[in-house]
Design brief:
about 400 residues, alpha/beta, Aspartate Aminotransferase, domain 2, Aspartate Aminotransferase, domain 1, 2 domains, seven-stranded mixed β-sheet, five-stranded mixed β-sheet, about 15% strand, globular, binds pyridoxal-5'-phosphate
């Protein structure tokens, strides 16, 4: 644009959909429209002096080695940071590399962490088995019970960890209230925001200090690649997370970053359509005679429905149903479905059904499953992008068979 046509700054803030298409772009000298995929492990220096200077301090557009950073990965980090209003982001090889990196980079032996008990299996492994092995003390609480958080967080608690909406029973945690309790003791709040999605819940605005995503879920949203990201202040991302991640090897590949950048472009449209489908299916299935329960934060009978209404836009893209008749009945439903695929991803364009008790949560002892509400009849449903009426007909036909 010629100089005399430049518009004055500051411009009004742009909306999410605009940011998801344009923010973070770094064009090469060729002026490509679509983001370039820099499939390179390293970068060339013009002189030995330049190499020395770059190792001393790399500038904005200067890279050294793909494990430290890469232009395509940086575009992904900048775009998702812009979406969340976070100061900075570090992209990781998977969601678990992000959870592990965020926690291990900031903790040391003797530290105390408080965590919600209802966690994704691998997150539970890190908190229960990895951190404790290195001398970090971890207290688990029922994330929906603020009194338990109050009792567990103490002077010297370094961090609290939680999943904004738990998997697969979809309990909603009050991020603002937990943040207040944690901050009163100087503890940092780390939120795994996967089930809430970057579109439907703004956990940083609610009080969280850092966010973690498995980009494998809604950010890709098409079941193609693994990825993760940690978002927070420049101080946390560059001084704490980056040194740990770049030296321990959990960085994102440039190819995956490119796929995820393209995923971000359509994420707002996809997640809103998926959430509308989840709401429609939950409402239509509520009270179905073959079901003990329909669990969905967007339904008025959900225990944290009011909190969900306050904290989120919509009830999310996942619902769970508890089929009367236990495991055998649940398996008959799964096997009878024609459009839904049996798998364990979520946030995908394809609608997916999962039987947590025998797959994702198989490892848990029966009493723990019972305490978490993971009953033998429970089926988790991740709503995809198919026509919701087709999905509803498929579910009704399958439920009619039992
Ligand atoms: C999938 C998931 C993860 C792990 O992500 P990966 O990309 O599979 O490593 C972590 N937390 C939650 C809530 C998830 O759903």
């Amino acid at each position: 644009m010629p100089d005399d046509q430049k518009r004055p700054d500051p411009r009004p803030a742009r909306a999410t959909r605009t940011k998801l298409v344009h923010d973070g772009i770094r064009r090469s000298q060729y002026g490509e429209v679509s983001e370039a995929m820099f499939l390179t492990q390293g970068f060339v220096y013009d002189t030995a002096e330049q190499a020395e200077a770059r190792f001393l301090k790399a500038g904005e557009d200067e890279f050294i080695y793909a494990r430290y950073g890469n232009p395509t990965v940086r575009m992904f980090e900048d775009r998702i940071a812009a979406l969340e209003g976070a100061e900075d982001a570090f992209a990781t090889a998977s969601g678990m590399a992000a959870v592990n990196g965020a926690l291990c980079s900031m903790l040391q032996a003797g530290d105390h962490v408080v965590s919600a008990r209802a966690l994704f299996g691998s997150c539970l492994y890190i908190l229960e088995e990895v951190l404790t092995r290195y001398g970090v003390q971890v207290t688990f609480v029922d994330g929906t019970d603020l009194d338990q958080w109050r009792a567990a967080v103490r002077a010297g608690t370094k961090a609290v960890f939680l999943e904004a909406i738990s998997n697969p029973t979809l309990e909603v945690i009050d991020i603002a209230a937990v943040s207040e309790i944690a901050h009163a003791h100087g503890a940092m709040v780390l939120v795994d925001n996967v089930f809430a999605t970057p579109i439907l819940q703004r956990s940083l605005d609610l009080g969280a200090d850092a966010l973690i995503y498995s980009a494998t879920k809604h950010i890709d949203g098409q079941g193609r690649v693994l990825g993760g990201v940690i978002l927070g202040t420049v101080e946390f991302i560059r001084k704490t997370v980056e040194p740990y991640m770049k030296h321990t090897g959990g960085s994102m590949s440039p190819f995956n970053a490119w796929v995820l950048l393209k995923g971000l472009e359509t994420m707002d449209l996809r997640v809103r359509a998926q959430a509308a489908t989840a709401q429609q299916l939950a409402a239509a299935l509520a009270g179905h005679p073959a079901l003990e329960r329909v669990i969905f934060p967007g339904l008025p009978d959900h225990p944290q429905h009011l909190l969900a209404t306050r904290q989120m836009e919509g009830g999310g893209t996942v619902l769970s149903i508890d089929v009367a008749g236990g495991r055998d009945a649940a398996f008959r439903v799964l096997n009878a479905l024609e459009i839904f695929t049996i798998s364990n991803n979520l946030g995908d364009a394809k609608s997916i059904v999962t039987h947590p008790a025998t797959t994702t949560h198989q490892r848990l002892p029966d009493e723990t499953k019972a305490a978490l509400g993971i009953t033998p009849g429970l089926i988790r449903i991740s709503c995809g992008l198919e026509d919701p009426n087709d999905l509803l007909a498929d579910l009704r036909d399958a439920l009619d068979l039992i």
